[in-house]
Specification:
118 residues
């Protein structure tokens, strides 16, 4: 089972996922918590550097620059680790998922440029 917890920074995703982790492990389930971006990975470090100003003011960056980095970060993580996780744990709790890509990057686009499905 995969549980995604979405939300903007500092709304309690980590606290919620920690509490959920504690409750599920009390039930005897093997639980893994992960958080995105995966700082410490190649793509996670690129995201961190970009957000910390390595490419200029991150609030002014084109969303088409950061969006692919976030996607690559998740692809890298899941391609390399999802099989091991699926075979080892009953539940995977994710702080953020690919939906965050849409939320964060689409929020930077003018409303008339948003696809209808958003």
């Amino acid at each position: 089972m995969i549980i995604n917890i979405e939300g903007i920074d500092a709304v309690g995703k980590e606290s919620t996922s920690n509490a959920l982790y504690d409750e599920l492990t009390k039930l005897g389930l093997k639980v893994k918590r992960i958080s995105f971006p995966g700082y410490g990975t190649f793509y996670g470090n690129a995201i961190k550097a970009t957000l910390n100003g390595a490419c200029g003011d991150s609030s002014e960056l084109d969303p088409e620059l950061l969006g692919p980095l976030y996607s690559l970060d998740r692809i890298h993580y899941f391609r390399n680790y999802i099989n091991a996780i699926a075979n080892t744990f009953d539940v995977l709790i994710c702080d953020r998922s690919f939906y965050s890509n849409f939320i964060y990057q689409a929020s930077k686009l003018p409303s008339d440029e948003l696809p209808d499905w958003i």
